[in-house]
Amino acid sequence: MESKYSKEIIPLEGWDREETFRFFSTFKQPFFNVHTEADITPLYRYCKTNSLSISLAYMYVTLLAARATENFCYRIENEQVVKYNGLDLSSTVLKDDNNIAFTHFPYRETLEDFCREGAEIIGEVKKSRKLFNGYQGNDLLHMTTLPWFTYKGMEHAFSLTHEETGVPRIGYGRLEFQQDKVMLPMSIALHHALADGFHMHLFLQEMQAVISNYKL
């Protein structure tokens, strides 16, 4: 499959994850899911002040954190491990006919540019009859949002019939307002041959640091 970003092969022989990779690569279902939440209070207030979409904003900070976390950039292609030097995202969009569309959202340098372009993309996709809209490669994050209810966890769909490339899968629930905080429920699924719980911790730390940059 063609990719948008450049990539480098990680030699498996002597890699510090070699034994872990070989072990989990034999699993029929190699993903592990973590259900957690993120405090997005600064980001929420920034978006309200600047009339930005909060859903596009938390997708954006997730993308920034993933791009800064090495293990989120690993993929499995042709039985090799590769590391992408950039990531975009693909998220479900609810169309006007109440069916979903998998939709490409490209990385942009600023939150404002990402939200502006993202709103335009959503407006077009809502009228589309296609399931897939825009670029769909391995150098993406897969995202979905369930804004109608909160949840304590979700399991992501996966196929048993094709090669698993290890694209991270991230789901969001309805925002929870807790006194003076705004919490975002999240479900994160990672391929265990490529990442462990510690790497998810690094990602969540990075995401919280990015969010804190939007303090008013």
From TrEMBL:
InterPro entries: CAT-like_dom_sf (IPR023213), Cmp_AcTrfase (IPR001707). Coiled coil: none annotated. SUPFAM superfamilies: CoA-dependent acyltransferases. It holds the Pfam family CAT. SMART domains: CAT. It comes from the Bacteria. PANTHER family: SLR0299 PROTEIN (PTHR38474:SF1). This is Chloramphenicol acetyltransferase.
